[in-house]
Amino acid sequence: MRSGKKESWRRLLLFLSFILLLSGCGKGSGNGEREELDFTVASEAEIPPELGSIIEEKKQAEFKLTYSDGDSLYLAVGLGRKETGGYSMSVKALYLQDGTICLETSSSGPEKDEEAIPAPSCPYLVVKLPYREEPVVFL
Length: 139
Fold this sequence. Notes:
The chain is built from 2 helices and 8 strands. It has one domain (2-138). The N and C termini lie far apart (39 Å). Helix content is 23%, strand content 35%. It is globular, with a radius of gyration of 18 Å. The chain is an alpha+beta fold.
């Protein structure tokens, strides 16, 4: 019974730590300074082969992942399988706040009056920035 209480406390502490981590990326509500980070949106040719393989495995479902090759940090976000083409993704913001890297993305689908491309698609976005050790939160 005693180990059950310890496990409950561990879960509670883990949950509270997670909540504190997420609160570090409040959209302007955090107390810490917000430092915009320099980045590029990586083209398919710029994505390391290992990361490309991981994305290929995961792209049928929504995903958010980080990858590092030692020199660069890659942040990848995928929308999952869509029945048509015409979807796009963009970076709304990438910043450091309260010791956490925060990535905010947006996506859009085909316009209502636009003819959708009938082939299925799996849209995703990969952001590349100089290597950093801070934790990442996807907003």
